Amino acid sequence: MRYSVPLMAALAASATATAPAEAVEKRAEKLFTLETAPGETVEVTEDEKFQMIDDHIHFFDITEWKDHNPADARLAVMTPSYPEKLSHQSNVANIVKKVSTKTMEKQLKKFSSFHNRYFNSAYGVEAAQWLHKEVQKVIKKSKHPLASVRLIQHQAWSQPSIVVSIPGKVRLKTVITGSHLDSVISDDRGAGRAPGADDNGSASIMLLNLLSAFLEDPRIAKGDHLNTVEFHWYSAEETGLLGSQDIFNSYSRLGIQVEAMLNQDMVGYKGRDGIERFGLVTDFTNPGQNEFLKLLIEEYADIPYEESTCGYACSDHASAHRNGFPSSFLFETPFGNHNPYIHTPNDTIAHVDFDHVMQHAKVTAGFVYELAHRDFTA
What's its top-level EC category (predicted)? Predict the structure, then answer.
């Protein structure tokens, strides 16, 4: 993932980079509006934007949504009442049993074999289309009467996002788990090799397998759950949380009641220090939902957690949070201890530990199943 450094220093460094005058003039025709902190924006060129990415500066790219004011739609991040005691251990255990590390390894090998999954490259589109077809296969195999998948085409970039919906009895109440499907490297972004096995193929494939197991649960298969459950795969996270912004901005405008959102971004690396534990992100997330996640970890996982921070707009949960929806982010380790190979051609399957991926699957299974049956109207 990314670390923060002073913004103006990064922009100054970018401005001194040499480039042909004609190319600079052409790029200057479009400026990007980035939100680097709540209510703080800056306009930059494309080169400056990517320099900020290379310098690990977090931001929302709000260029396409300058008129969207989340505060107008939702004045504050709501905090639903989450369970204080878990009650679906048997069902969750049966779901987890159906998630196979061998299957995940096979699928991640394919997903990371695309030359890259860059949001504006033909490879990135092809990879998203492959994942969409895999999701379609899962839904068709399940024969669930109401489950559906949408391929979300975005106006300003080519790579689509994917949304699966499994309607509940109370259709307006929605529980979401999501991950981003794109990848990036620092140099030669559109044409360079960016396998993105851990960042974020690991979570994308984990959710694909969890979806399959979730749909096989007898109560879910009959539609005998209260709340609508959605699985999301977001495009263009690496370039300003674009896909998740488009989706959650839309949900805010439409008045969709998101009761919980769990983001999974990088789930396959145990840590540089050899001490296996989750990183539970506490900044720009929902405290009440984080407490519920701690309960899930203690009940369903075999490893502990350590609280961590990642800064403003560090991953897709931030798009939900910015729109007033409660969200959490469970990371592979505490920040700073994570996979050192991300955003390079070396982010390969060789550095993914599938037993660690399973730990995330266990918590995520508990999250979606427990909350699918939670009466948020009580």
Answer: hydrolase
Question: Are 182 and 117 contacting, i.e. CB atoms less than 8 angstroms apart?
Answer: yes
* Neighbouring C-beta atoms of residue 25, cutoff 10 Å: 10
Output DSSP code: residue 290.
H
CB atoms within 10 A of CB 326: 24
Sequence spans of domains, the chain? 7-57, 73-372
Is residue 97 predicted with pLDDT exceeding 90?
yes
9: which 2 tokens?
Answer: 């220093």
What is the reported pLDDT for 17?
42
C-beta separation of 343 from 73 below 8 A: no
The per-residue pLDDT for range 115-131, each reduced to its tens digit, is 999 999 999 999 999 99
Q: Enumerate the β-bridge partners of residue 175.
A: 229, 260
Judge whether 256 and 172 are in contact, CB under 8 Å. Answer: yes
Amino acid at 115: H
Within the chain, residue ranges assigned H as helices are 7-15, 21-27, 46-54, 70-73, 89-97, 101-111, 122-142, 203-216, 218-221, 242-254, 287-300, 317-322, 354-372
Q: What is the dihedral of CA 97, 210, 130, 61, to 10 degrees?
A: -150
Closest listed residue to residue 178, CA positions, set 359, 374, 337, 330: 330
For the chain, the helix, strand and coil percentages under 3-state DSSP, each to the nearest 5? 40, 15, 45
- Tokens 């092809």, residue located: 126
Closest among 127, 189, 110, 185 to 161, alpha carbons compared: 127
pLDDT of 13 above 60: no
| Distance in angstroms (rounded) separating the CA atoms of residues 138 and 105 | 17
Q: Are 284 and 354 in contact (CB under 8 A)?
A: no
Cα first-last separation, the chain: 39
Cα gap 180→312, rounded to integer Å: 17
CATH architecture of the domain with residue range 73-372: 3-Layer(aba) Sandwich (3.40)
Residue 322 identity (one-letter amino acid): R
Our measurement of the distance from residue 10's CA atom to the centroid of its chain's CA atoms, rounded to an integer in Å, reads 26
What Rg do the C-alpha atoms of the chain give, in angstroms?
20
